[in-house]
Write a structure and sequence with these properties.
Blueprint lengths: L1 H18 L7 H9 L6 E4 L3 E4 L7 H14 L5 H27 L4 H24 L2
Antiparallel strand pairs: 1-2
Length: about 140
Amino acid sequence: MKGFKLSILAVLAFCNLSNALNPTSSPLNKIFSKLYPAGSGESISWGVLKTPTKQTNLSEDERARRREAAAKDLVNIDDEERARRRVAGQVLTVVTCAVAAALPLAHVGFGARVAAEFPLAFLAKGYLGSAKQGL
């Protein structure tokens, strides 16, 4: 019964985190806006790491065309970053499956298994979704 209660608590904690992800007012959004400010000359790599933006000699018209295409397609990451996120999602999927197989063999309780597997599974799904949608 204790494992079941822990599982419920883990799900409730995740739901509360999901509610905090409201893009307009969440504390998480404020933190990310400060960590990754727009126009800082840096881009995101592997979903969380900062790297210097590649300098390109694009005309203002070409930049405007690319911004318009990205807004139309609702895409804000390039193909290279999408490929990196796909790899990260695939690796995390394998890791999640390995953890899901190993923990019962180690006689880890159900609640602890859920607490270990949920974050990995959601990270994997998030990376794969980001790679697919370009967001």
